[in-house]
Amino acid sequence: MRTIYSSEQIAQLQKNPCVWHVSERTISYTYEFKKHSLDLYAQGIKPDDIWKQSGFDIHTWKKDYCRYTLKDWRKLVQQGGLESLTRPSGVQADGGYRKAKSPEEDRVRRLELQVQYLEKENAFLAQLRAKRAESNSGRSKNTDSSHS
Predict the structure, then answer these.
(1) Taking the CA atoms of the chain, what radius of gyration do you get in angstroms?
(2) Cβ-Cβ contacts under 8 Å for 56 (sequence gap 6 or more)
(3) pLDDT for 89-109, tens place per residue?
(4) pLDDT digit string (tens) for 23-57?
(5) Hey, is 45 helix, strand or coil?
(6) Which of 57, 58, 65, 123 would you label with 9, given CA atoms 20 to 30 Å apart?
């Protein structure tokens, strides 16, 4: 049975720079994440640890999801080389907006998504600072007159 992502899970997954695209039923990872994951796995790092190190909550998926995902990627690479990790065959697509034609395009797209995320985060933090400043401006300063 496939994992169906809630809107909260989708929002959280979209924040991760290793994610290319996520929808209710699918998650696509960036070329860099796939390649780096395969490299780490070849060095003996456990699949679940690779996902954890990349900021994912592995409890989102069923047991062995990470292992089977790496197995699929290894099979793709064996059949078509590293370039096969960028093909939009259900493995790498951007929700129909733009398909990755090369690792460089994937990298650029990932960085664009990261910039969008950071801009939103900065706007949120600016609002938070403004609210904090507003609430502090109405407070009277600690003026204890008993020390006179």
Answers:
(1) 22
(2) 13, 16, 18
(3) 444 334 434 555 677 877 787
(4) 888 888 888 899 999 999 999 999 999 999 999 99
(5) coil
(6) 123
